Amino acid sequence: MAKREIPITSFDGIAENEMPDSMVKTPRLWGSARLCYTICAFLAMVVQLCLRNTLNFVILCMVKPQPTTFENATTFHEELAAAEADSYCGAIDTGTDSSKQRTGDLSWTRNQEFALLGTFYYGYLVTLPIAGRLADRFGGKLLFVHSITVQALVFMTLPFFARRSYEGAVVVRIIQGLIAGCGNPALYQLFSTWAHPTERTAFLSFAYGGFSVGALLVFPISSFLCKLGWETAFYVVGGVSLVFGICCQWLVYSNLEDHPRLSKDEYEYLKCSRVEKTSNKVPWKAILTSVPVYAFIFTHIFNTYGIMVFTLLIPRFFKEAMRLPLDQVGILSSAPFFGAFISKGITIASCSIIEKRENLNLTQFRRIVYVLCNLCTILFITGIVFSDCKQRILVTVFATCIGASADLSFSGAYWPSLLYVAPTYAGLISGIANCLATVSGFLAPLGISAIVRHGTKMEWNSVMSTLIASYLLGAATYGLFGSSKLAKWGKADKSQENNNEPSNENTIEA
């Protein structure tokens, strides 16, 4: 498609990209191109999350029922503890009675089940840094669209290969991860084009709300589709994702000039604050010596560990530690993500208003929000540790609150800050951060499988203790070193630094 030339209102003595925000009319949001992209990003997060996490529940339907905890016990003390738990809470569901819908026919071991959940992240880890730089350099549409369409096609082949060998399923999941790794950096980078600085946090929060909605939907949907045969879940989720990805070809664009439906007013509004793509060398020395960058990366690592544990293993936690039948597991496993969905509404409603306050120190505000939210998350996790398997409603409430507080710390605090520190290199740095944080995606299931050998509540409490430690480290890191100030090297064009700084903090730091 040929690039469209859009006339720009001229102002004497003011370069096109130096036009102050006060001289540019804010166009209406409804029906705008920036809202269209934000909605597409939201739906992309929904389908990406479903493609990634459907297996986390469906694997409980795919594999032949495991022996009960009592039968798994190897010592007298383990047998006694298992017998007491079965007497108090009821025996762990083994595929009978209320769980007749489980028609698993694959003979995989418990360790293989845990390991397969993490194989996705072996591939995801490889492409994240590459995708971030490519999105910064050439625009994000290509990666955004095809990370959905191609991944959906690969996802639908998993039942075929899983029935033939465990190794075949592993290969499919690794390939799926390779493709999925291209999507998130591109989605994040496109917001530097399609969101004005005063709208970025709200738009990002709405878009990443798709993560919560996808996680909220994926487990109940998977539970329902399991009743129709576990293969159905892969075909339905993959088919819907494929259709959506094809539609995005006509809805998402890398550049303002390429968009056929972009109004003149909106073009001027976005153009004056757009971060231009650059072929200049990446300022690696500045990036690698930047304290705010390291704070962002390490905060993301600690935060991602908590996300990984909940998205990968919460169905198994409710099934084993809470002794719930499989049909209830599908519903209650969505509790943390329902809480996250609620917190997204709070973030979207408040952040745009808060960030426009003239005297607000955005760095301090985000630090305080993040630390308080993490402390609340730790409090709720502690509540789960001290609850037993008969207090299922209380545990569900705690899980919902964990999702709300953890998501608020993500969307309303540290995650948008990178677009303020280094908008030109946001895709690159977020890709590196995601790459390092994703290591927990395959290490967590392996480590937890070593801790949770029999599925007892005490074993799962040990897992919860690792979450508490992770959130404490995250609070300390971002609380001390997090920043939302524009770095000197954060934009390729130095003439834009003062005009495009998205907050009211005028200090520019290294």
3D structure, described in words:
This protein has 510 residues and is mainly α. It has 2 domains: 30-66 and 104-273, Growth Hormone, Chain: A (Up-down Bundle); 282-490, Growth Hormone, Chain: A. It is built from 22 helices and no strands. It has helices at residues 33-62, 69-72, 76-89, 110-138, 141-155, 158-164, 166-180, 183-194, 200-226, 230-248, 264-271, 284-288, 291-320, 326-332, 335-355, 362-385, 392-414, 418-421, 426-437, 439-451, 457-481, 497-500. Helix 4 runs antiparallel to helix 20 (439-451), helix 5 runs antiparallel to helix 10 (230-248) and helix 9 (200-226) runs antiparallel to helix 10. The chain is globular, with a radius of gyration of 24 Å. Residues 490-510 are annotated as: Disordered. One of its GO terms (biological process) is monoatomic anion transport.
Core attributes:
510 residues; mainly alpha; Growth Hormone, Chain: A; 2 domains; transmembrane
CATH class of the largest domain: Mainly Alpha
CATH homologous superfamily caption of the largest domain: MFS general substrate transporter like domains
The overall pLDDT average reads 80
What is the number of domains? 2
Low-confidence parts, pLDDT < 50 over ≥5 residues?
Answer: 5-19, 93-102, 494-510
Tally of strands: 0
Number of helices: 22
Helix content class: 55-70%
Q: What structural class do you assign from the helix and strand content? A: mainly alpha
What's the end-to-end separation, in Å? 40 Å
What is the CATH topology assignment of the largest domain? Growth Hormone, Chain: A
The CATH architecture of the largest domain? Up-down Bundle
The helix-strand sequence is: HHHHHHHHHHHHHHHHHHHHHH
Radius of gyration: 24 Å
* Biggest sheet overview: none
The amount of beta strand, in percent, is under 5%
Shape: globular
Membrane topology: Multi-pass membrane protein
GO molecular function, one term: transmembrane transporter activity
Keywords: Membrane, Transmembrane, Transmembrane helix
Protein name: Major facilitator superfamily (MFS) profile domain-containing protein
